[in-house]
Amino acid sequence: MAKNSIQMQKGLSLDKFLATYGTENQCEVAVEKFRWPDGYHCPNCGCGDPYEAQALLKSALNLPDIDDIKPTYFDQSAGLNNYSVGLSSLHGRLEASYHVPLVDSIQRLLVANAKEVATVGDSRVSKTIILPGRFKRVYVGEGQGVKFFGGKQILELDPSTNKYLSLILHAGRIKGQLTLHEDMTLITSSGTIGKVNIVPKHWDGWTANQHIIRVVPSNASIAGYVFAWLASDYAYPLIHRFTYGAVVDEIDDFHVAAVPFPFLHDADIQKTINDKVLEANRKRFEAYELEQKSLKIMDEKVIFAEGKA
Question: How far apart are CA 202 and CA 289, in angstroms?
């Protein structure tokens, strides 16, 4: 029987393999080391910062590190964080979490440094913001429905789900509320609030559950910038402040619509941020395709390989 060139490579014991690659963080470090032995650099532009869009956004708005923003508290001698809120600033919300001073500090920085502070619901930013209604799901087999995943999988490149939503029984809801489209921004709205991702090409036409808010960008010239802002450390407190619920945390579509949104003085930098995000999103799709090819090779050459005489 002929030797399989992949199976006969020098290997590791199971114990050593688990010790070396037993956690997601270990795997991430190993992949980065194999891919960029001399440190990360973009093969196209040579940039050494994998978060260049966020760095540009932070610089353009003259924002300090989020941990360096020091909110003003009412009585710093009290030994705990405390603050006062005027009646005119309650906005119908009595929860202390809605009025945390960090939110005011971020908003003051935006007003001082942005060309204009609009909201995510502004027609220049989004066409619509969708929070699907609750419904009883009917699942079907692969090939009979459309792929369906939830908030737990929102940050995965290839969401780990084998669920398919019935096209026959949920056709109207799928078309009007559930379907994802490339470059939409997604925000988790139930349980864990404020996880943000942008829809890659291979998710286009898939569906996600009612615990994820969809921000449909007004056009391609701002889609990437919308994601860059909403995924930033500075937007997170502005989103999370709207959380409500006695048992399960929730936010609604009109809350996301009210989140402040900064337009930059320099339109060229804003365009650069937008373009970099969209290019990165295209690269995610390419990475997905390469991963699928690798999995196919693994199946054919290793897992289900048959030796040849």
Answer: 9
Q: Can you tell me the distance from the alpha carbon of 146 to that of 138, in angstroms, rounded to the nearest whole number?
A: 11
Q: Which domain holds residue 74?
A: 52-271
Closest CA relative to residue 58, chosen from 234, 304, 293, 199: 234
Judge whether 125 and 217 are in contact, CB under 8 Å: yes
CA dist 18 and 32 (Å) reads 18
Q: Are 189 and 251 in contact (CB under 8 A)?
A: yes
- 244 burial via Cβ count (<10 Å: 0-12, 13-18, 19+): middle
For the purposes of burial, counting CB atoms within 10 Å of the CB of 39, is it exposed (0-12), middle (13-18) or buried (19 or more)? exposed
Farthest CA pair distance, the chain: 84
Q: Provide the total of helices (H) and of strands (E) in the chain, helices listed first.
A: 9, 10
Kindly state whether residue 291 falls inside one of the protein's structural domains.
no
Q: Which amino acid is at 102?
A: L
Task: Please report whether residue 284 resides in a domain.
Answer: no
Q: Which residues contact 307 (CB under 8 A, 6 or more apart)?
A: 1, 2, 3, 4
Q: Which two tokens stand for residue 43?
A: 């093969």
Cα Rg for the chain, rounded, in angstroms? Answer: 23
pTM, rounded to two decimals = 0.81
Assigned domain for 90 exists: yes
Residue 308 has pLDDT above 60, yes or no: no
Confidence of residue 307 (pLDDT cuts 50, 70, 90): low
Residue 270: burial class (beta carbons within 10 Å; 0-12, 13-18, 19+): buried
CATH number reported for the structural domain that contains residue 144 in this entry: 3.90.220.20
Residues 107, 197, 126, CA angle at the centre, nearest 5°? 60
Task: Evaluate whether residue 239 is within a structural domain.
Answer: yes
**Residue 239 pLDDT level (bands cut at 50, 70, 90):** very high
C-beta of residue 266 within 8 angstroms of C-beta of residue 60: yes
Specify the number of domains making up the chain: 1
